Automatic annotation (TrEMBL):
This is Uncharacterized protein. Keywords: Membrane, Plasmid, Transmembrane, Transmembrane helix. Residues 395-431 are annotated as: Disordered. The chain crosses the membrane at residues 12-37, 49-71, 83-106, 339-364. The keyword Membrane applies. It comes from Sinorhizobium sojae CCBAU 05684. Residues 419-431 have a biased composition (Basic and acidic residues). The keyword Membrane applies.
Amino acid sequence: MTLGASQRLHEGVAAVETMTRFALAVLALASGVYTYLGVRSLLDGSPTAVFFAAMIYSASVSVAIYAFWSYMARFYPHVTTHAGRVAMLGVMALGAAMIIAMSSWLNAAALAGSAALEQHLAETVEDYSGDLDQAHQNALAAQSLLPDIQRASERFAQLAVSERQSGALTGTQGSGSVVQLLSQMSAQMKELENGVNASREQVTKLFNDGQKRLETMRKLVSAPGAVAPRADQFSSEVVALTGVIASLGQTSIAPSIRRAADDLSLGFIAPVADGGDADLVNRQDAVMETVRSSVAAQSKVLSEAADEILARAPVAERRFVPLSSAEAVLRYATDFIPAWAGAISIDLLPGVLVFILATVHGVIRKQEEKMPFADRITAAELLKALEVQRAVTAKAVSPSETGVPPEGEEPNNITSLEARARAKDRSHEDR
């Protein structure tokens, strides 16, 4: 049974030898083709130079992969010592790492490079979309102060009307210094209100422009066709969008509100009381002092609100870095694990064949060690041994060298033959 199993394994190894070589050649060729597609995207220059450079590199990769795995398939299964096996495994690991470095990542770039580059563009769109929203919010933050400014303007205007018509503040109706002061404060607030409204219109216009740029960028990401031309146009849109975001950052009305609020209190100039008698003058001075206090309070509220807006984090400057398909595959490797697995498998699958051959040869050696000597020797070896025995006997070589018994004793050809066969078997195992 052992002899039959061992013989069938020998026959199986011999039968798959041609298939093994064919498989190595096909896998090496496939790796070379995908390596060519990957390396071509990295090279610059004339189309002819790029073609020949990529072709030479891919051919070198194919030859290297075929030679490396051929050597491993030829020698590793026959290395039996522990130290030899460890050394061969180290060489195999080093070779596999070199193959991955020079071929597998380029194979992955050929398999998933376009998808990885599109993902890079898509993530860039999302990043710039967030920047545009943040810049828009920062620019519109000052709009929250508009109701306070409108209320203050209306209040000053209503007090001026009441004072003019009924003398609600001084007790004397007419257009005096108090009405003049209230109208002045209302006009200042109205001017600030108009500035906020104008800023809102400009911010809205810039934001709409940015939205159009983002829409164009999204269309470029999902558009059919080659990704390289789309990436070039995408870069142009990024430059334009960056300008829009920078303009939004400079459009905020908050600094202007802050300065205007300071001017309300620091630059407050009350007119001289113009009453006809001392009592009216005193009443006008008292009202104007009240107006001064109200303006100071309003100025403080606006200044604090403007400071909160100015304290917001500005939009960080972002740079768009164009990537090649190979670089995109490396950066987003975790998102394209199936492509990486396929690319590496093409290059390292021959290693599985090497381990299969090593396992089979190991089983053969163990089975043959358990076989009797008579089962291990082949007919050809037996005939050869008989020829050697006859030649030695004919030349009368000394017994110590040939194993022939001394004169007077009957030669034991079987014993001598077995001794020579065992010596030959040991020599074969040593090799």
